[in-house]
Amino acid sequence: MVMYLVVALLAGVVLGFGLRRGGRAFRTFRGMRVLTCPENRKPAAVELGAWHVALTAILGRPVAQVRDCSRWPERRHCDQACVREILGAPKAALVQTILASWCHYNACVCCGAPLATMHVGPHQPHLINREFRIFEWKEVPPQDLPQTLRSCEPVCETCLVSETHTW
Ligand SMILES: [Zn+2]
Questions:
Q1: Where are the domains of the chain?
Q2: Is the pTM of this model over 0.85?
Q3: How far is the CA of 136 from the centre of ligand 1 (A)?
Q4: pLDDT beneath 50, residues of the chain
């Protein structure tokens, strides 16, 4: 009886460690990323199969592979060389990281208020382009986001509300 309890306890510990590794792998590798495609050296929006990474991490060695890419389906059978770059710096190319960095280093073009405290979530960053059109970053295809952020200015929530009420 004691033997069964020890085996069950050990199995529970091993399973617990595996699930923890899987959960950590899922949180690390989920989300859309924008990086330079190693093949054509142009921006591409890439999403890894986070569930696949998590399940393989539970079973042993995590295996990462591309689930979707803005260059697909034309380049569906590429060698997925971008995966190595993602494994080397999992957070760097995340859309959330790119937006957070943009907010951190910019101020509202209307009132000058810093955007460092703006959260990517309920209060979405807004952009204004050279034609004075205001739009949300979600309207931009992810692979175009870095270029769009370079050519636009941010507008804070307060200015956006006051501007849209006077137009
Ligand atoms: Zn403002």
A1: 2-88, 95-166
A2: no
A3: 15
A4: 167
